[in-house]
Design brief:
- This protein is mainly alpha-helical.
- The chain is built from 14 helices and no strands.
- Helix 5 crosses helix 8 and helix 5 runs antiparallel to helix 11.
- The longest helix has about 30 residues.
- The two termini are about 55 Å apart.
- Keywords: Cell membrane, Membrane, Transmembrane, Transmembrane helix, Transport.
- One of its GO terms (cellular component) is plasma membrane.
Length: about 300
Amino acid sequence: MSSAAQGLRRTGSARRQPARPAWRERPKPATQAAKAVALAAVVLLVTVPFLIIVSTSFASNAEVVANGGWVLWPQHPTLNAYRELFDGGIVTHALWVSAGVTVIGTAASLACTIGLAYALSRRDVFGGKPILLLILFTFLFPPGMIPGFLLIKGLHLLNSYGSLVAPVLVNVFNLVVLRGFFQSVPEELYEAARLDGAGEWLILRRIVLPLSKAALAVVGLFYAVSYWNAWFYASIYLDSDHWPLQQVLRTYVVGGSQLADSAAGDASAVAAPQTIQMAVLVVATVPILLVYPFLQKYFTKGVLTGAVKS
């Protein structure tokens, strides 16, 4: 066969090869530009409102009035709003309440969720399937407000901080995630530990929990954010002297209430209502923003943990 014929055959076979998948092709400049514009728009939609909240909390009364209640960049920043918040005592007390409920509630929820998820992940546990079905039933058909109130009243938890933890002690979604992760741990590890004489408690503490750091970080973050942002149960079960920060925030921002112990005397030292509201928003948001970076490395790995079994 001549070289010309071989060249034609190679050319024909090359043309018959399937095209590369779309996700392996290099994006066109127009596509890259469109993605950059879309990403920039999303970033602006997220950062600009937060910047306005922070800037307004530091703005002076004259700047708030001149800009119609919102300040993008204060020319004369002041801490009057934050002084008024923490000098009054209401927000300080509410902040301690939220911190305590978040820390204690997250620890209690993690302990209960880990124990229940580990028990339900074992095949030989007595009554595992019926208990799991009952738990999933509560997820599909949650109780209403009146049964929950009657339960809290029957447990004598009205006007106590236990009423903020007891109704949400175990979240079904978090339980299912942890159960799925515990089931994905190789069975050979459990068998090897049992051959060495380890009991279930030792297996959970020495083997399962060290392998579950990513899942525990994600579930713990979910619980912490839930407890920190909770305000509904506080409005039902607690009086105003025991309110957490989020309920105080809702009262100031939504209800338009003012601080009861506001600074008196010099009118220039009293912050405008808008700066008070924005300062409360900043105080309520910053703690979660400070905690999240330390858990970010676990979040991406653990957010899908339990959804796919290895």
